[in-house]
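tokens incoming
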């Protein structure tokens, strides 16, 4: 595990805290918009589905740059960038086939990125504020599996993706708040 994300310097939590707040805000807005359009794969819904993993790529790039600037490395984040980039491509193709295929691609992405998040959080736990990331990663794996099941249902819907994203955002918020508390306590 230690080879996936090296021990970051003390200034990394400041960047992570800011990044986690931004990720929460994005997830909350995104979830609300998807919830409003979850019944169909119209232009807004399609855009939202592709933008979410694209935002994940951007956030991981910011995280990698922060780790590098502080003398660390972050191979788990590079894995996340690759997985989320593949999800962007997969979703762009899946939206042309319908909601079941979208749920299958989203499910595969949720499982894979959840495992990476769990490992990265475990390696970074000494920073504080990482238990929510570890728990969120585990929940993502379970949710991804449930998306596969939903894809085979009689009336699959995207509404659960909105709930998944919002819950993930809440975990980012909790981590940001815990990092803030850890920073003030240091």
């Amino acid at each position: 595990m230690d080879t996936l994300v090296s021990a970051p310097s003390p200034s990394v939590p400041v960047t992570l805290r800011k990044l986690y707040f931004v990720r929460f805000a994005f997830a909350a807005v995104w979830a609300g918009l998807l919830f409003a359009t979850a019944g169909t794969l119209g232009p807004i819904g399609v855009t939202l589905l592709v933008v979410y993993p694209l935002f994940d790529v951007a956030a991981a790039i910011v995280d990698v740059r922060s780790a590098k600037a502080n003398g660390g490395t972050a191979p788990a984040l590079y894995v996340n960038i690759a997985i989320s980039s593949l999800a962007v491509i997969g979703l762009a193709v899946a939206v042309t086939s319908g909601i079941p295929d979208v749920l299958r691609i989203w499910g595969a992405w949720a499982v894979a990125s959840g495992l990476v998040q769990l490992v990265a959080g475990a390696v970074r736990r000494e920073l504080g504020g990482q238990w929510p990331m570890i728990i969120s990663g585990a929940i993502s794996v379970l949710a991804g599996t449930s998306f596969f099941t939903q894809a085979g249902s009689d009336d699959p819907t995207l509404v659960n993706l909105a709930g998944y994203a919002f819950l993930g955002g809440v975990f980012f918020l909790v981590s940001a708040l815990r990092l803030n508390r850890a920073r003030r306590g240091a």
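note: The chain has one domain: 12-185.
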